[in-house]
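BUG: 3D viewer hangs when loading the predicted structure for this chain

Environment: internal workstation, default settings.
Expected: structure renders.
Actual: progress bar stalls at 90%.

Input used:
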Amino acid sequence: MSYETILTSDDDNVRTVTLNRPNELNAIDQRVTQELQKELKAISQEPSVRCVILTGAGRAFCVGQDLKEATAGDEPLDFAARLNEGYNPVICALRSLAVPTLACVNGVAAGAGWSLALACDLRIAAKTAKFVSAFGKIGLVPDSGMTWTLPKLVGYAKALEISWFGDAISAEQALEWGLVNRLAAPEGLAMETQAWARKLAQGPTRGYALTKQAINASLSRDLESQLEYEAMLQGIAGRTSDYEAGVKAFIEKRQPEFTGE
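Structure tokens produced before the viewer hung:
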């Protein structure tokens, strides 16, 4: 599939989606959200894709909403409609993909661009990357899921501090606060992300998807209902081909060969 604002490539069951507006620091306009929606839907229907990397072209990951679009025309941008029709479907699609998603944060991630990274399952950042809420500095509310993901990662008070002050957060601070999973030298970031993604793509994909479902569900369930949900999901996992392959390999003391089924 050909796009104007994103690039895609495949390598060993890993799909890399690259935001491709480097001259605008990968700012998001309507085309970007439309094309991300199409691509994420396509990925969800392709069994060969077993891990997804999201990154940005050039020196930025993504600086969020293209403010030129927001201020174009005589009427102010309808933010509610823009979110409901553009951004929110992208965030939901990322969160619900049945394969692991990795944000490869190669530079600044600001505003809704940071929200995109937070919507991925895991984040690897260059040591030179920066994270900026940005919303508080222009009188807006953090959106695209940031008010849902951020407090779950850093807690209530820290989420408010980040959102209100909007100070840039270094990659080292992001790692300390649990906002990213690991750091890499800028020149080795793509290679390290690809290696991690390839390892995930060779794993028990169905089991990963069920684990993702369980952890997402735990955010809104009490212990008793979560125990019941775990049992139900484990019943499904125990009937997969990957479970059989994993047990057989364990007994035979060798590395398993998972098919993702």
